[in-house]
Amino acid sequence: MRSVMKCLVTGGCGFIGSEFIRQGLQSRDMQIVNLDLLTYAGNPENLRGVENHTGYTFVKGDIADSSAVADLIDNSFDLIVNFAAESHVDRSIEDASAFLRTNVLGTQALLDAARRAGISRFIQVSTDEVYGSLGEDGQFMETTPLSPRSPYSASKASADHLVMAAHHTHGMETVITRCSNNYGPYQFPEKLIPLTILNALQGKDIPVYGDGLYVRDWIHVADHARGVWQAALEGKPGAVYNMGGDAERANLEVVRLILEYTQQPESLIKHVTDRKGHDRRYAMDFTLIREEIGWEPKVVFEQGLKDTVDWYRTNGEWLDNVTSGAYQEYYEKMYGGRKTIS
Ligand code: NAD
Ligand code: TYD
What pLDDT digit, counting tens, does each position of 190-223 carry? Predict the structure, then answer.
């Protein structure tokens, strides 16, 4: 590698990619090029403070546009880290087309361009959802067969297979990370935690799907981004690494904590029509990355959640910007038709 590493990050204006870029520029001497289409989920404000960093360049573009990707990627890059994706399950249930284009075709376009440019190191940021759904017991391991059940997770699993194929067929030095549910600053308020915080701050009803006893493992975005850096720099070629937050919680528990931190009554909770094909439980065994690379999560869930609530409370301008316009339409479309069931 060159003395100053050059890294292409895709989807760096999103929730996790922006944290990854902030960490990279703060702690390492490197050049980062951020390729992002700026969809509804991509917001340059997520990178406020780093836009003028000498090591940072932004390029607006679509990872699924293979000729634009081929033009951008040359052999000056040392590695590619692919965060760009359509990432919300509910949207994938409404319409899967953008998920296939970005998550599947986009990943292959990046792999092709990387290989042609002679860049071997390719990091694919994936999710626990590719493994499917668990019952009350057990955890996903890297060896668990992929069994995705939503259009989102099916598109991410397809991408994982394509990345593995590039490793086995073309000898690319790929690394796949699979992480559990993230929370923290700058998350678009369509996912459970930021949506609940936003509604609670505004004293609005909190929509809880079905019985609210679905379980997710929650990890702070800073822990996840740090793990992706470690896997990117130290991970073995062809490896898959699970990451988790060691914080399994039922949705109702999470919502109740947010109501406590925002001093709002539990009467705001409204159980609404369930998500179709709703995965019951996710849980991660991340022994491999702990033993091989020495990564583990540091943020304790309750403290991280409290800090996240404070962040949203004190970043009203950011919240106003991302929820103006199309967000209201989205909210009405997604929640207007859901029946309150208790
Ligand atoms: P996000 O939705 O906040 O951000 C996605 C980013 O990708 C946005 O900036 C968007 O503009 C960009 N993008 C979308 N389509 C693009 C395209 N065609 N070309 C270029 N850029 C495009 O997502 P996130 O929550 O930050 O997730 C990032 C990655 O991490 C995704 O791959 C997701 O599957 C994975 N992941 C997310 C979680 C989670 O809890 N959010 C957990 C595990 C894994
Ligand atoms: P989400 O944040 O969409 O992440 P994922 O489905 O990718 O795990 O949802 C987390 C959990 O919260 C999931 O069980 C669905 C549930 N949920 C609600 O109950 N109400 C909501 O308004 C949302 C967005 C999610």
Answer: 999 999 999 999 999 999 999 999 999 999 999 9
- Does ligand 1 have an atom closer than 6 angstroms to the CB of 11? yes
3 state SS of 337: coil
Look-up: residue for tokens 């869930």?
A: 301
Q: What is the DSSP letter of 294?
A: -
Task: For ligand 2, say whether the CB of 208 is within 6 Å of any of its atoms.
Answer: yes
E-strand stretches of 128-276: 173-179, 181-183, 206-209, 215-220, 239-243, 248-250, 269-272
Closest CA to 280 of 83, 84, 60, 131: 131
Q: Which of 78, 128, 160, 279 is catalytic?
A: 128
The response to whether residue 150 sits with its C-beta less than 6 Å from ligand 2 reads no
- Residue 195 beta carbon below 6 angstroms from any ligand 2 atom: yes
Ligand 1 nearest-atom number relative to CA 188: 3
Burial of 278 (0-12, 13-18, 19+ CB in 10 A): middle
What CA–CA distance (Å, rounded) separates 42 from 153?
20
Cα–Cα dist 14/138, whole Å: 31
Ligand 1: distance of its center to the CA of 85 in Å? 4
Tell me which of 56, 131, 152, 186 is the catalytic residue. Answer: 152
Our answer to whether residue 129 is catalytic in this structure is yes
Please give the structure tokens belonging to residue 322: 């991302």
Residue 192 CB–ligand 2 contact under 6 Å: yes
Element (H, E) at 5: strand 5-10
pLDDT tens, residue by residue, 29-84: 899 999 999 999 999 999 999 999 999 999 999 999 999 999 999 999 999 999 99
Give nearest CA residue, ligand 1 atom 12.
Answer: 11
For the chain, helix, strand, coil in percent to 5 are 45, 20, 35
Q: Is the pTM of this model over 0.90?
A: yes
Distance 268 CA to ligand 1 centre (A): 30
Contact 271, 211 (CB under 8 A): yes
